[in-house]
Amino acid sequence: MGHELGTILKVRQLKEVSQIPDGLKETINEFNLGDMEIIESSDEIIHLKLKGHSSIKDLLNKGIKTEGSFCAFEAGMLAGIVEHMVNIHCFAQEVDCGLQSGNTYCEFMIVFQKD
Ligand SMILES: [Zn+2]
């Protein structure tokens, strides 16, 4: 579901994988999808923090905790946006959710699929 949203958002087309972190930040700011911070990026993965995104925004302060990956919508959306920007197949997953860790942010990993 998030994945489809990611692919219909209007994003800037990028030529280089190295431009993805900036492009992603731009898109997330533009559509008000949360607050993003890159932890690590290479031509294989992007590891990032996201806070204030819709899946958990209203739950964080209510002491609700979940097991497993909660923000699948955002993960799909991130993958969709990146695919749309550079035309490389990728998948994304939430590696650490704020609802589990007690942090104010969630961590996601985007992995580019090589042929
Ligand atoms: Zn989360």
Q: What would the keywords be for this entry?
A:
115 residues; 4-stranded antiparallel beta sheet; single chain; 4 helices; alpha+beta; Muramoyl-pentapeptide Carboxypeptidase, domain 2; binds zinc ion; 24% strand
Read across the widest sheet, the strand sequence of neighbours is 1-2-4-3
Shape summary: globular
Instruction: Name the ligand types.
Output: zinc ion
Biggest beta sheet summary: 4 strands, antiparallel
The figure for the number of domains is 1
Low-confidence stretches: none
Query: What is the count of β-strands?
Result: 4
Counted by DSSP, the helix tally is 4
The first-level CATH class is given as Alpha Beta
C-alpha-based Rg, rounded: 13 Å
Structural class: alpha+beta
CATH fold call: Muramoyl-pentapeptide Carboxypeptidase, domain 2
Write the element-wise H/E pattern from the N-terminal end onward: HHEEHEHE
Question: Portion of residues in helices?
Answer: 25-40%
CATH-wise, what's the superfamily? Answer: Trafficking protein particle complex subunit 3
Q: How many angstroms separate the termini?
A: 25 Å
* Mean pLDDT across every amino acid position: 88
Any idea what the CATH architecture is? 2-Layer Sandwich
Strand content: 15-25%
